[in-house]
Amino acid sequence: MEMTNVDSSNVAAIGFDESSQTLQVEFKNGTAYQYFDVPEAIYDGLLSAASVGQYLHQHVKGIYRYSRV
Fold it and tell me: Which branch of life, at top level (predicted)?
């Protein structure tokens, strides 16, 4: 999965696989998570969010199934 670096205090990079609708989030502390069945619009929103961490908390965490990578 191709990752894109983002400007965030906690998130290092995000990536998205269209075929499986999987969002991957890599944090600056070295952990990474994959979120499943995520619409591409959510990924686009993360890329353009003023605060990536806030957007992630409001629109992804607690909403989509996930697994630590």
Answer: Bacteria
49, 33, 16, 28: CA torsion to nearest 10: 50
- Tell me the pLDDT of the chain averaged across its residues: 97
Residues with Cβ within 8 Å of 44's Cβ and at least 6 positions away in sequence, in order, are none
Average pLDDT, stretch 41-51? 96
Q: Which residues pair with 33 in a beta bridge?
A: 25, 68
**H helix and E strand count, the chain:** 2, 5
The secondary structure element, H or E, covering residue 52 is helix 52-59
Give the amino acid at 61.
K
pTM equals 0.95
Query: Which residues are paired to 67 by β-bridges?
Result: 34
